[in-house]
């Protein structure tokens, strides 16, 4: 793979690199890691890349890599820059025939995401989106349980993602990560919903197998002087009629990344928290509660395929991230081998998630600014159920 972004001071770039090499199936062969050529070269040297594979711009990287012979050029590019450059980099990669794996959100606007979808359709190339939390084994188990009908008809969905790292004023002056997330020019029209609310929305759709169809939203800039939202509460209506509540906040002092998902059907419910990711709690209407554990008995083939260690050994954030990389690598390998990707290899968020994610972000901002109660989300007919 080649990488764009992830240079000095980056948080998510190094995590991507760890996840990519965890299974020994992907090699980082080239990159441009910063807009600053000296810093980009410094990062490349620290990663032991040859000087000729360290580029000064993503455009020069795409051109040079495309000119290399098969088996030597990169097979795909991973994008780990701020949101404002995601679309341009992805478009350039597709133009030169490279598959794309991108950090979320996919683009800065729904319009850009729609353009990206059109380019993917024309080129037939692969696209993945690293919604990390969908990579956890017990989230795979939750998805399988809902799909099997074990919970019955889904009625209620509660998803919350409280953080506290932006609870104080002035943090953006001290943190590169906070600065760009609170800058509309780089982040887009939303900070909180764009950064973590989109994760919560994607997770609820992934587990339930149903798209969000309508919303009622309340977004706020709680910390004085901020231009963008740092707190959000969204009422949800899913395509199948289920109701839900999504809470995303960056100003819950003392919270870390306390992501939690609860799904209730007419036969039972499930409860998963990222702070205890190896555990899935099931509650039944007609029998005692049940606890399932990662690597333990009774798990679905999808959950087992995304588990690495024996029961009782923690599988966390990095492993969940790595599941997306391993599965996406499987898709690329399937293309090279001229075969269809397996069900597990296809289990990576893609362009449908990208479109729904950007649709959700823009709709919540518009809904919060409106006096209208319910806002129906624009249909994505060709991709809605993929």
From TrEMBL:
Pfam families per the UniProt record, alphabetical: GFO_IDH_MocA, GFO_IDH_MocA_C3
Domain (Gfo/Idh/MocA-like oxidoreductase N-terminal): residue spans on this chain: 2-129
Transmembrane segments: none
InterPro entries: Gfo/Idh/MocA-like_OxRdtase_N (IPR000683), Gfo/Idh/MocA_oxidoreduct (IPR051317), GFO_IDH_MocA-like_dom (IPR055170)
Domain of life per record: Bacteria
Record domain GFO/IDH/MocA-like oxidoreductase: where: 140-270
PANTHER family, alphabetized: CONSERVED EXPRESSED OXIDOREDUCTASE (EUROFUNG), OXIDOREDUCTASE
Name this polypeptide is given: Gfo/Idh/MocA family oxidoreductase
Species of provenance: Zhongshania aquimaris
Lineage of origin: Bacteria, Pseudomonadati, Pseudomonadota, Gammaproteobacteria, Cellvibrionales
């Amino acid at each position: 793979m080649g990488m764009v972004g992830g240079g000095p001071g980056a948080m998510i770039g190094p995590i991507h690199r760890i996840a990519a090499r965890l299974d020994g199936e992907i090699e980082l062969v080239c990159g441009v890691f910063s807009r600053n050529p000296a810093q980009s070269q410094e990062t490349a040297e620290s990663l032991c890349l040859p000087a000729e594979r360290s580029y000064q711009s993503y455009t020069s990287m795409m051109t040079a890599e495309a000119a290399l012979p098969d088996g030597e050029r990169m097979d795909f590019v991973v994008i780990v820059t701020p949101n404002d450059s995601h679309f341009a980099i992805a478009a350039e990669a597709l133009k030169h025939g490279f598959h794309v794996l991108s950090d979320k959100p996919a683009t800065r606007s729904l319009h850009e995401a729609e353009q990206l979808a059109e380019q993917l359709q024309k080129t037939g190339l692969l696209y993945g989106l690293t919604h990390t939390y969908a990579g956890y084994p017990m989230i795979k188990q939750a998805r399988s349980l809902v799909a099997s009908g074990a919970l019955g008809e889904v009625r209620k969905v509660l998803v919350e993602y409280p953080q506290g790292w932006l609870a104080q004023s002035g943090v953006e002056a001290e943190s590169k990560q906070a600065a760009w997330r609170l800058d509309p020019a780089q982040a887009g029209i939303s900070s909180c919903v764009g950064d973590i609310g989109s994760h919560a929305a994607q997770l609820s759709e992934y587990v339930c197998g149903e798209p969000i169809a309508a919303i009622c939203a309340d977004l706020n800039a709680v910390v004085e002087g901020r231009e963008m939202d740092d707190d959000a509460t969204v009422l949800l209506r899913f395509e199948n009629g289920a109701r839900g509540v999504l809470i995303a906040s960056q100003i819950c002092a003392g919270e870390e990344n306390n992501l939690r998902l609860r799904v209730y059907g007419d036969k039972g419910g499930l409860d998963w928290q990222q702070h205890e990711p190896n555990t899935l709690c099931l509650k039944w209407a007609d029998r005692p509660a049940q606890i399932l554990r990662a690597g333990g008995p009774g798990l679905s083939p999808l959950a087992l395929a995304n588990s690495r260690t024996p029961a009782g050994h923690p599988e966390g954030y990095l492993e969940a991230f790595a599941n997306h990389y391993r599965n996406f690598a499987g898709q690329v390998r399937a293309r090279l081998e001229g075969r269809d990707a397996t069900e597990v290899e296809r289990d990576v968020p893609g362009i449908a998630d990208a479109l729904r994610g950007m649709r959700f972000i823009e709709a919540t901002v518009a809904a919060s600014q409106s006096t209208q109660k319910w806002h129906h989300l624009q249909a994505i007919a060709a991709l809605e159920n993929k």
